[in-house]
Design brief:
The chain has 16 helices and nine strands. With 416 residues, it is of the alpha+beta class. It folds into two domains: 237 residues, 2-Layer Sandwich (Nucleotidyltransferase, domain 5); 70 residues, no CATH class. The chain has a seven-stranded mixed β-sheet. It has a two-stranded antiparallel sheet with strand order 3-4.
């Protein structure tokens, strides 16, 4: 049998068919970040750092808030115990937020994107410094430090627990001096919790955007929990397209942080001048003023919160009690008694006991003290409480009644 052409080709070492051929490598299409976003390299002593800058005109509104509004932040500073925060220092305030390789913190976590926002004579600017690769961390920190050096105060949202400790750690690990230890720091998360813990179920920045600032986010938004994985995928693939959503998320956080700062500054500076402020918010502001020893302001805001007529009953009674105790501390007994009498309209047990104490210790009117104590026993007997709790209450009030009756019988006596 004659040798076939295929056999001759095989004898010469020629591969027949495609089954044993190696699959050719496809060239990976990469989309570097500078093709996705309009940024530029900043030259630092540690190399180039990529930065994106966006400028906002003076008339820019973030939700309902004008970012260029000349707010007075003095009471925000007083609450935060930051003497640096003055009305004339608005251009020296830097708003900061980071996007990181993880949410747990620790030495293995680094910030790959740092957003910075600040006022300018022509409006508001957001700068975002990005780390293309972990080897560029020193350049990111150098660029960050150069910007930070122009400011006196940092404003963050949960930055005292996360962002600033993380950045301090990264500075130490790169043998850098950290600039944050010499700056004032206002963390708005604790303030937001104080102001809205009784009205809002969540005080996360994104929820405050919706409830307080009325800011919608577009479809560009990516959830925060996805951001570390998006960055790691970028490091593997070189595809910067998904990072556009991360930059959007970070920029929105900076703008919302600045808007929230303006809102809080206005609320604490002139709470009675703002329209449509809910009674719960006013009650929270009044309590802050009381704790800051701004007593006259606290009295005015407590009065307004009660007059709004929208406080849920439990918070209405709690506010009456705090307001009454404030008057009691100032020996303004007539005003305190008036508030306790209002509380008795809702059969609030504490009000009856306070009235009994007032008549016993201040007026030495044991007849009235006994009457209010007896009423307190009736109210406590009808309260929907666990048996053991009601029993303890009744024992305490009954003991008070017995002591008052002894005083009345003796015709004199001392207080508790």
């Amino acid at each position: 049998m004659s040798e076939s052409l295929s056999d001759k080709l095989r004898a010469l070492g020629v591969q027949i068919g495609a089954q044993n051929l190696a699959t050719p490598k496809k060239e990976q299409a990469t989309y570097p970040i500078d093709r996705i976003l309009a940024g530029k390299d900043l030259l630092t002593s540690s190399g180039p750092a990529f930065m994106v800058q966006n400028d906002y005109a003076p008339e820019y509104l973030h939700g309902d808030i004008l970012l260029s509004n000349r707010v007075n932040p003095e009471n925000v500073g007083a609450w935060a115990k930051s003497a640096r925060l003055k009305e004339t220092d608005l251009e020296k305030i830097l708003f900061l937020d980071t996007e990181t390789s993880g949410l747990a913190g620790g030495t293995g976590t680094y910030a790959f994107l740092v957003g910075l926002g600040f006022r300018t004579p022509s409006g508001f600017t957001v700068k975002q410094i990005f780390m293309r690769d972990p080897s560029q961390e020193s350049a990111l920190l150098a660029a960050l430090d150069e910007i930070v050096s122009s400011f006196d105060t940092i404003v963050t949202f949960n930055g005292k627990s996360f962002d600033i400790p993380l950045l301090n750690t990264r500075h130490v690990m790169n043998s850098f001096f950290t600039p944050f230890k010499t700056l004032g720091h206002i963390d708005l998360l604790p303030l937001a919790r104080r102001l809205w813990r009784n009205r809002l179920s969540s005080r996360a920045l994104k929820d405050l955007e919706t409830e307080i600032l009325h800011v919608p986010r577009t479809q560009e938004e990516v959830p925060g929990w996805m951001i570390p994985e998006i960055y790691f995928e970028y490091l593997r693939s070189g595809d910067g397209r998904p990072l556009a959503g991360v930059f959007y998320h970070n920029a929105m956080d900076i703008l919302s942080l600045a808007a929230l700062f303006n809102f809080c500054a206005d609320l604490l500076h002139h709470p009675l001048h703002l329209k449509d402020t809910p009674g719960l918010d006013l009650a929270a502001v009044a309590r802050l003023f009381e704790e800051m020893n701004q007593i006259e302001a606290a009295i005015s805001v407590y009065e307004e919160s009660l007059q709004k007529g929208d406080l849920p009953l439990a918070f209405y009674l709690e506010t009456l009690q705090r307001f009454a105790l404030l008057y009691r501390k100032r020996d303004q007994w007539e005003e305190a008694v008036g508030l306790w009498l209002k509380a008795t309209e809702h059969h609030w047990l504490d009000a009856y006991i306070e009235l009994a104490k007032y008549y016993e210790h201040h007026q030495r009117d044991y007849t009235e003290a006994i009457r209010w104590t007896q009423t307190a026993i009736q109210v406590a007997s009808q309260m929907d409480l666990p048996y053991w709790r009601r029993r303890v209450l009744l024992e305490e009030i009954t003991h008070r009644l017995g002591r008052l009756q002894n005083k009345f019988a003796a015709g004199n006596g001392s207080g508790e």
